[in-house]
Design a protein that fits this description.
The protein is of the alpha/beta class. The protein has one domain (7-105, 150-277): 3-Layer(aba) Sandwich (Rossmann fold). Helix content is 38%, strand content 22%. It has 11 helices and 11 strands. Strands 7-8-9-3-10-11 form a 6-stranded mixed β-sheet, with helices on both faces. Strands 1, 2, 4, 5 and 6 form a 5-stranded antiparallel β-sheet that branches. Strand 1 (7-16) and strand 2 form a beta hairpin. The protein is globular and about 65 Å long. It starts with 6 loop residues before the first strand and ends with a helix. The model has no long low-confidence stretch (mean pLDDT 90).
Length: 281
């Protein structure tokens, strides 16, 4: 393993229903400092991969891998107590909708300061100061006012900034962002991605961006892993390299303002089924 390698995954498999359902089927991933995108339709297994890396799947999920290494540590061998120390401190997960990630009955300040106390060992005043500083860093105006607000009193874009700040407070080595902009207005999506890019770049961290939007991911990430039915069917640096029929179908299904069409194409399910029956997927 290279010294700068942060994540090394070989043959990751996730099964449900006593092994009858393979949600993730033999996924290989490697990542050092930089940005990797995982794309695919709903149900392709991309979010399950992210949760498997964080060890946040339910107890009835069966997770196996030939190798599941983070910073040289075997994640499958770690106790839940040690994983608890990693989450939020060395590994962070940013969810898609801050309305469901933030506690509605606690102020923003209490929640961000709690992260500072848990992961940085700060005392109350020091944690409050750290919370204010991170809100300033994610470009939230009037951070003191926002610290005293409840989640329902701020916009979705501001809530996502809060979540990004909270997750990056401890300067993690790996950040997994699961559809971080899908619940936001188009006008603020670019701002949130720019902010995420800036903070990850400054900390020299690895980022996994999970999304169904292959064009957005290709513009943001250095590499893209395309998932279909639990498998990575193709990995590419830019969309021009796409060869797999499913990847091409995803690209065709995305609207392109430069090339307007009356009706968008969809992946050829019959061709995919034939390819799968022949063992090509």
């Amino acid at each position: 393993m290279q010294n700068d390698q942060i994540l090394d995954v070989c043959n990751l498999t996730v099964r449900f229903a006593n092994g009858a359902v393979r949600a993730v089927d033999g996924v290989d991933l490697s990542l050092g400092r930089g940005k990797l995108g995982i794309v695919g339709e709903s149900g392709s297994g991309k979010s399950t991969v992210g949760r498997a890396l964080m060890r946040l799947l339910p107890p009835f999920a069966s997770v196996t891998a030939d190798r599941l290494s983070f910073d040289g540590q075997d994640l499958l061998d770690l106790s839940e107590r040690r994983m608890h120390k990693l989450r939020g401190a060395r590994m962070s997960l940013i969810m898609q909708d801050p309305r469901y990630s933030l506690n509605p009955v606690k102020t923003i300040g209490i929640q961000v300061a709690e992260a500072a106390r848990l992961h940085l060992g700060h005392r109350r005043k020091e944690a409050r100061d750290a919370a204010e500083a991170i809100l300033e860093r994610v470009r939230i105006r009037e951070p003191r006012r926002v610290l005293d607000a409840y989640p329902h009193q701020i916009s979705g874009g501001m809530g996502q900034r809060v979540m990004i700040g909270m997750m990056l407070l401890a300067k993690p080595r790996l950040v997994i962002a699961d559809e971080p902009t899908s619940a936001l207005d188009v006008s603020v999506r670019g701002e949130v991605l720019d902010l995420l890019d800036e903070m990850v770049e400054q900390e020299g961290a690895a980022l996994i961006l999970i999304s169904h939007d292959i064009r957005m991911v290709s513009a943001f990430c250095e590499r893209i892993a395309v998932m279909y039915k639990g498998r990575v069917v193709e990995e590419l640096a830019h969309l021009g390299e796409a060869e797999h029929i499913y990847t091409r179908g995803l690209i065709s299904a995305m609207p392109d303002p430069r090339l307007p069409v009356r009706r968008l194409k969809v992946p050829d399910r019959a061709a995919l089924a034939k390819l799968e029956s022949e063992g090509g997927i």
